[in-house]
Amino acid sequence: MATRNALKIVSRRFSGSGKVLSEEERAAENVFIKKMEKEKLEKIAQQGPVQAAGSASEVKASGASAESGPKVSEDKYRNYAVVAGVVTIFGGIGWYLKAGRKKQPQAQE
């Protein structure tokens, strides 16, 4: 599903003229998308029963929009990046506020 949406956005973005796709173009695009999804599922099936079961559940989970339960990232590097980003943002805000509080030197007469 995400692949299909991404291909639609990319094809419309780079079509150049900004026109809406004709019926023939849309049909050709849908055939291409279905072919790509079929190839992806076949590749998962060839990986083996143990790996395919995990991959197939991931494909179903990514395609399902009404899934119960929280969506938590399992990628530890992504989690580190989020934490680093939050720390950087708060550090930048603190630096900005601290810099704004400096007193201007008063001219002595």
Report on this model:
The structure is a single chain. This protein is mostly helical and 109 residues long. The protein has a domain at 2-64. Helix content is 71%, strand content 0%. The longest helix has 25 residues, at 23-47. It is elongated. The relative contact order is 0.07. The model has no long low-confidence stretch (mean pLDDT 75).
In total, the number of strands is 0
Give the SSE order as H and E letters: HHHH
Largest sheet data = none
Compute the separation of the termini in Å. 73 Å
Query: Given the C-alpha coordinates, what overall shape results?
Result: elongated
Structural class: mainly alpha
Taken as a percent bin, the fraction of beta residues is under 5%
Are there runs of 5+ residues with pLDDT below 50, and where?
Answer: none
What is the helix tally?
4
Helical residue percent band = over 70%
Radius of gyration: 25 Å
Keywords: Membrane, Transmembrane, Transmembrane helix
Organism: Cardamine amara subsp. amara
Protein name: F1F0-ATPase inhibitor protein
Could you provide a short overview of the structure?
Residues 45-72 are annotated as: Disordered. The chain has 109 residues and is mainly alpha-helical.
